């Protein structure tokens, strides 16, 4: 995992205070990618959807590469997609759980006018999925959900899918299905530039660290402290509903450091020039689109959208990266581009 180098240049951004204000207003508003071919064209000897779902469940119980535990792409409709298309009138929309305060990922730009339209890399992907399934990129009902509510929102049927910088891991595969990965990142430490904290190491001893509830960052810290890979005196008790809240805690001096995905941490540092990423990324993780475990047709369709999104050089993955993320991350997106997708094999 390559270290992310921040740029100082920011355009039209008034600081995290303006961001926080926009997020508060948005709360009221928010709640109202290589294989192709279709299921229908598969040979007669192909295994059933139920068998493939069972494969995915077994893989989740004994998985070493969670980013490979997904189904092959398909353009075919199935029961899940049919139900989405059957929604009447104005309700004929894709319901998607997103973040609204992750700068350049899913956020409401305070300088973006009265509409409060959600923008960012994740939001671009949502519009591509909606356009593919419903023929209209704006046929989306966005629902802002906290980090720890991403899985419950899927399981309860409040959303069709979640596109919210969500890391694919073995634990989560027991509860939801994931698409192929669409972004590569890794956990990093964020701290004030003047801080003696140097990274994910002994300099975190006797320091308070903030993470988001239900995040892979907290799980990693908890495991490493238990195993002795993190100083026992590191205080990891501060958890918050949304990752931006950790930046606020850091600014207020309530915590000494934040541990977060490097991609998100870079965006946070872009909002506050007094903080910076400390040390190298100490994990490798992949973001995926999350859906219900039995929504096989939707998983396949999203994977097909991701194939197209990666191959589209004009308005696809790289164009979206350049528009939203190159200002806060390296100009070269290769470090963040996920590997060539691998899918569950049929025997």
Please name the defining characteristics of this protein.
single chain, 347 residues, alpha/beta, five-stranded mixed beta sheet, 15 strands, disordered N terminus
Largest sheet: 5 strands, mixed
Order of helices and strands: HHHEEEEHEHEHEEEEHEHEHEEEHH
| Secondary-structure class | alpha/beta
Shape: globular
Give average pLDDT, whole number.
85
Number of strands: 15
Q: What would you call the quaternary organization?
A: single chain
- Stretches where pLDDT falls below 50 for ≥5 residues? 1-53
Number of separate helices:
11
How far is the first residue's CA from the last residue's CA? 33 Å
Proportion of strand residues: 15-25%
Q: Compute the gyration radius: what is it?
A: 20 Å
Helix content: 25-40%
Strand order of the largest sheet: 5-1-6-15-7
